[in-house]
Amino acid sequence: MVLSIGLAVMCVALGVSMIGVILPQLGSRAPLHFFLRVTTMAGVLSVGSTAMYVLAFQGGGPIALAIAACAMVLAPSMLCIAVSAPRSRQVRVLVVSAVALALTVGVTSVVLDAPTALTVRVLAVAAASAACAVLTARSRTIPRRSALVLAGTTGGFAAYCLARVAVEASPLGDSPLARTLFSIEAAGVIATATVLLAGVAVVLVRRSPAFGGAATTAPWTRVAFGDWPRARTELGPDGLLALLTELRMAAREVDPSAVDVYRGVEMLVPSALSTVRSRLRDAYGWRAAQLTLLRESVDGSRRT
C-alpha cells in the first residue's frame, strides 16, 4: 500500500516538474539542458523502479525484482552524471560505472538468496547516492542552492542505507525499533521523500538568479582551449589540466554564474575572452603564449 501511494506521489511530482520546470528550460544553454535531461531520466527510473517493486511484491517473480533493482541503482547514478560537465571524460566513466553496478545488482537479485541480494542492493544504492552527494557538492554546472539540496538529499539517503546494513548486521537488527525504521513501509516513505526533495532541487534551478531574471535574453559565451591536442603536446596532460582549473577559477571570479563546460567555461559577461585573459594574466601569471590558446564562441541560443 505504501509503495502504491509513493508511486502515485512520485508520478505527480515528476509530471509537475516536467511541465513546470524541465520543458520550459530545454531550449537553454548546454550545461543546464544536460542537467535537466538526465535528471528527467533519473526521475523516470525512480518511478519505474517503484512500479516494478509493486509488481514484484504482487507475484511478478525474480525478473520483475531484478528490473526494479537495476532501476533503483540507475536513478542515483543518473544524478551523478547530471551534475557533471557535458561530454567530459567523467561522464563516460560514470556511465560505464552505472551500467556495471546495475548489472551486478540485477544478477545478484536473481542468483543470490533474498537477504544477501537485499544487502547488495542497499549497498549499491548507498554507493551511488554517496557518489552523487560528493559530485554534486563539487559541481559548478548547477546553481549552488540546487546543489546543496541535492547533495544533502542524496547524502542523507546514503547514510540511511548504510545505517540499515550496519544495524541489520548487529544484535540490534531484531529490535522493534530497527524493524520499524527499516521496514518496507519506512524505506518506501524515505525513498519517496528523497525523490521529492530531488524535485525541489530541480525547481530551485528555475528560481536561481544565475538562470533567470533580466539576463535571460543574453547570449552565453564559451571560453575554451581552441586546439586541445596542441595544448596537450606543449604543456603536457598535468600542465594543461592545471591551466584548465585556473581558467575556470578565473571565470567564476569575474562571473559567479559561470559554469564548467567541455574544456572550458561558459560565461554571461561582455567581452568574455578579453576579460578572462586579463584576469588570468594579472592574478594567475599566465604568459602570452598560454593566453593565445584560448578561443571564444557565442552560444546563439537564448535562455528561456
From TrEMBL:
Q: What is this protein called?
A: MHYT domain-containing protein
Q: Which residues cross the membrane?
A: 6-23, 35-57, 63-84, 91-112, 118-135, 147-166, 186-205
Is Oxidoreductase included in the keywords of this UniProt record? no
Q: Which UniProt keywords apply?
A: Membrane, Transmembrane, Transmembrane helix
Q: Classify the source by domain of life.
A: Bacteria
Q: Does the keyword Metal-binding apply?
A: no
Q: Which residues form the signal peptide?
A: none
